[in-house]
Amino acid sequence: MIGGNNAAFEIGGTDKQVIRNPINKMPYIPGSSLKGKMRALFELSQGTIGSDGGPTLNPTHLAAQLFGYIKNKKEGQDKQQPSRLIVRDGELLNADQFPDTDLLYTEVKAENSVNRIDAKANPRFFERVPKGARFDLNITINVFDTDENGASFLNYTYEALRLVQDDYLGGSGARGNGQISFQVEAVKERSMDYYKGQDEAQTDLTEGIPTELK
Q1: Over 50: is that where the pLDDT of 8 sits?
Q2: Is the whole model's pTM more than 0.85, yes or no?
Q3: What is the predicted pLDDT for the residue at 158?
Q4: What 8-state DSSP symbol labels residue 174?
Q5: Which of 4, 32, 84, 141 is 20 to 30 A (C-alpha) from 151?
Q6: Domain residue ranges in the chain
Q7: Strand-pair partners of 208
Q8: What helix, strand, coil percent values describe the chain, rounded to 5?
Q9: Are 57 and 64 in contact (CB under 8 A)?
Q10: Phi/psi at 112 (nearest 5 deg)?
C-alpha cells in the first residue's frame, strides 16, 4: 500500500489512498519506493546507515557503490556517483481479476484504534491493492570497468530483494499491509557490443537466480 494524493478526500471516504496511474487509473508501484526500501534494508543489513540516519555517503560502503552517493563536504568527500541501479515503475498485470473490488482495482481496509483513557473508538479506512495483485518489475544494473565491486552488484540486488520480501513495502506494514514476494523470470547480461548490434554479445544468467526469488 503506497500512498497517493488525498486531494479528493471526502467525508466517509478513505483516509489514505493508493497511488494510481493518472491515465488508466490503475494502482502501480513507484520504482523510487521499491528502490528506496531496497537501499534502506540493505544498509541496515550492512550496518552502514548514514551518521544522520539517512543514506550512507561513504563511497567505500557497498550500498553507496550500488545505489549511488552525493558529495559530502562535511566529511571531505568531494566526489559523487549516480546510482548503478535503475528500478522501473511496476504496472499492474492482472487487473482483470479484480472486477468487483470496493474501489477501482483496490479494496478498503477498516481499522479502529481505541483511546486508552476514555475508550473512544477512532475508525480509519485505508485503501490497498487486493491480495494476489501482480506487478511487472524491471531492473537494470549498470556496471562499469571502474566499479571496484561491479561483479557483485547483481548478488547485492538479489540480497536487497530478499530483504524486502521478508519485510514489507509501503505503509502500515506492522498492521499487515505491504507483504510482497518477487518472481524473477529472466536475467540477461549485455556488454557494450550488444548495443552496437551484436545480438550474441549477451549472456543468460537466469540459472543463477536464488531459489527464494523464483
Answers
A1: no
A2: yes
A3: 98
A4: G
A5: 32
A6: 28-182
A7: none
A8: 25, 20, 50
A9: yes
A10: -145, 120
Of 18, 17, 56, the C-alpha closest to 40 is 56
Predicted local confidence at residue 3, as pLDDT = 53
Q: Is the CB of residue 68 less than 8 Å from the CB of residue 81?
A: yes
Distance CA 187, CA 207 (A): 8
Q: How many residues can be counted in the chain?
A: 214
For residues 135 and 9, what is the distance between their CA atoms, to the nearest angstrom? 26
**Helix pair 31-46, 153-165: axis angle to 10 deg:** 100
Residue 142 has pLDDT above 90, yes or no: yes
Q: Residue 83 has which C-alpha cell? A: 546510482
Region of residue 53 (left: phi > 0; alpha: psi -120 to 50; beta: else): left
Would the pLDDT of 19 be above 50?
Answer: yes
d(CA 144, CA 29): 28
> pLDDT at position 75, please?
65
The b/e string for 186-211 (b: 16+ C-beta within 10 A; e otherwise) is ebeeeeeeeeeeeeeeeeeeeeebee
CA-based nearest residue to 50, from 78, 73, 69: 69
| Per-residue pLDDT at 26 exceeds 90 | yes
So what's the pLDDT on residue 123?
83
pLDDT tens readout for residues 72-91: 776 667 788 999 999 999 99
Q: What is the pLDDT of residue 12?
A: 46
Q: How many CB atoms lie within 10 A of CB 80?
A: 13
